[in-house]
Amino acid sequence: MVADLFVALLGLSTPLVSAVAPGLELTCSLNRATQGISISSDGRKFLSQRYSTSDPPQAVELLNDNSTRLYPNVAWNSYNSSNPNSNPRRTFVSIDGARIGPDGRYWLVDGGSQGVNGSSKLVGVNLTTDAVDKLYYLDSIIASSSSIDDVRFNAAGDVAYLSDTAGALLVLNMTTGKNILDNDYLLVGDIFATAWAGLDFSGFETGDSVAVFGSSPVGLLAALCHTPRGIRSILDYEPKGVKRSIDCIGYEAVNADLKHEQNIVINSMVSVTAQGGGIGLIGWFTAPGSSSGTPRGSTMSPTIEFPISDFFDKGLSMRSGAVDVLPSAPGAG
Ligand SMILES: *[C@@H]1O[C@H](CO)[C@@H](O)[C@H](O)[C@H]1NC(C)=O
Ligand SMILES: *[C@@H]1O[C@H](CO)[C@@H](O)[C@H](O)[C@H]1NC(C)=O
Ligand SMILES: *[C@@H]1O[C@H](CO)[C@@H](O)[C@H](O)[C@H]1NC(C)=O
Ligand SMILES: *[C@@H]1O[C@H](CO)[C@@H](O)[C@H](O)[C@H]1NC(C)=O
Ligand SMILES: *[C@@H]1O[C@H](CO)[C@@H](O)[C@H](O)[C@H]1NC(C)=O
């Protein structure tokens, strides 16, 4: 049935009866360009109709006799930008993506019109009452130069993920009606994944002692709330050295006199890491050269002096590199 309908939808204003592929059957022809179909759990069909140069976007229910009716009603589909009495807060101004949510509502994304306050919104229609009973205005969370065009929900149906035409993803807390800022996810994505990979790079196994160099967000997460210690105190605390160490600083490191000392962290790690231990290097070590974005880039040397004898005698291993976020934080994609 769904496949049949899609064929029909492609028919647009000229029924393509002769173009229907073998095995498919035409079940309905529509006179309006139709962008999406949503089918409720009890089989009701809703169409969002857009992409017409002459007709305003509208939402309709497709009835069993192949006719359509404006949905949820005429008023919601009556926006007229030339009429000052037309209320963009209570009408569809430019509907785009639409779908049945986990709560059973028919949700429509209204991309609105730039500069028209209240026109950009997420509209929830209760299919029992056929009335709009949830409405989120999005003016305050969209950028002035873009609009939203589609939506997905979490399983619980209380978070909406809205795609934005400029390529952003807006996350709406449907309980509060406020957006969840990207910053709330920042640590879960790059930072957490990098910290996690640092432990992996060091060869960490449960129970291993770890020295983390650098108290940046990455370092703090890698340390899982341990206070970073100096080399002396690490060895006071772990006289045989720690099993693993992680560099969360990179070659911009400074020494106790706040002088740039590119190899201080690596050398310290070799000092404090015990026989057979491992070193994870997630601090940055690419020599960028100078550019307008990195005016002091050429002060970073691509080579450093390294205590290779200690490294060899202790049988240490070391792994480094840029971190691929997706394996440890799949949601961050
Ligand atoms: C709906 O339209 C299709 C294609 O035009 C037609 O075959 C079918 O009989 C129609 N169904 C009803 C109930 O009118
Ligand atoms: C839109 O509003 C203008 C101004 O009131 C009116 O002239 C026009 O007929 C309206 N268009 C439609 C399609 O109702
Ligand atoms: C948009 O409408 C809200 C009320 O819903 C109001 O607080 C806000 O000032 C309006 N913004 C503009 C630019 O008119
Ligand atoms: C839809 O409205 C009915 C009747 O008011 C109500 O019982 C039901 O909970 C509403 N649906 C949702 C998803 O809130
Ligand atoms: C949404 O806001 C509510 C109320 O502040 C809060 O309890 C809930 O955790 C928030 N949901 C998300 C996903 O942030």
From TrEMBL:
Signal peptide range: 1-19
InterPro entries documented for this protein: 6-blade_b-propeller_TolB-like, NAD(P)-bd_dom_sf, Quino_amine_DH_bsu
Keyword Cell membrane applies: no
Cofactor: Zn(2+)
Transmembrane feature ranges: none
Keywords: Metal-binding, NAD, Signal, Zinc
A GO molecular-function descriptor: metal ion binding
Domain of life (superkingdom): Eukaryota
Record has Metal-binding as a keyword: yes
Family per similarity comment: Belongs to the zinc-containing alcohol dehydrogenase family.
Protein name, UniProt field: Major royal jelly protein
Organism: Aspergillus cristatus
